[in-house]
Specification:
With 215 residues, the chain is mainly α. It is built from nine helices and no strands. The protein has a domain of 139 residues: Tetracycline Repressor, domain 2. α2 crosses α3.
């Protein structure tokens, strides 16, 4: 794994016009259909019935973020928006279930946005071999760990969990379980396997919380 460095611009919202979103969505859909390495600007233009010049106008040139980097930031920020919105809905209800809600939402994201979630696999791969993308990936994972820590504290406050002595440490244990399960689910070609990975994640995380030290 390459060393990651903190870069504040990564966490900034990427401003996107409707046309740029259309192109990004077309690119991500093509990545799902034919594989990232097979996608070209020409294929994107044909899929979206746009001119090649339009694609280059929005994602070409040294002064603009390229298609790959824009896609990574777009998928990252959209997944965060989706998860945060869904979590806020759960938090506002009387049926808040803490970490189980987060896991349910993560697997719902996989089903709702398959072209985004499959691209995350490529993002994960790039983060393991390229220090530039490692920065993106590390800070994305840091946000996720912070969110898990906050959920555990909220779970304690809402009476879902007992008084835990080391919430941050527990979040560090839970985090790789969820990330690993999501990756395995995305890689598993067996039909219906997502439900198995989903349930297994719920069981493992529940056991981790059950065995955590309490005050």
């Amino acid at each position: 794994m390459k060393t990651a460095h903190y870069r504040p611009e990564i966490l900034q919202q990427l401003p996107l016009s409707s046309k740029r979103i259309q192109i990004l969505e077309g690119y991500l859909s093509l990545c799902l259909e034919i594989g990232v390495s097979e996608v070209t600007m020409d294929k994107i233009a044909r899929k979206l019935n746009l001119s090649l010049g339009s694609i280059h106008y929005h994602f070409g040139g040294k002064e603009k973020l390229g298609l790959m980097e824009s896609s990574i930031r777009y998928v990252s920020q959209e997944s965060i928006k989706f998860i945060n919105f869904e979590l806020e809905q759960r938090l506002a209800s009387d049926n808040f279930a803490g970490m189980s809600d987060y896991i349910d939402i993560a697997f719902k994201w996989i089903k709702t946005f398959p072209h985004h979630s499959r691209f995350y696999l490529h993002f994960y791969y790039l983060g393991s071999i390229d220090s530039h993308y490692a920065d993106y990936h590390a800070q994305y994972l840091d946000l996720m760990r912070s969110r898990l820590t906050g959920l555990l504290f909220q779970g304690v406050g809402r009476g879902v969990y007992p008084e835990l002595t080391n919430v941050e440490g527990l979040a560090l244990k839970i985090h790789p379980v969820i990330v690993g399960s999501v990756l395995l689910s995305l890689l598993d070609p067996v039909e219906g396997s997502s439900a198995i990975h989903h349930q297994r994640t719920l069981d493992i995380v529940s056991e981790l919380i059950k065995n955590a030290e309490i005050k």
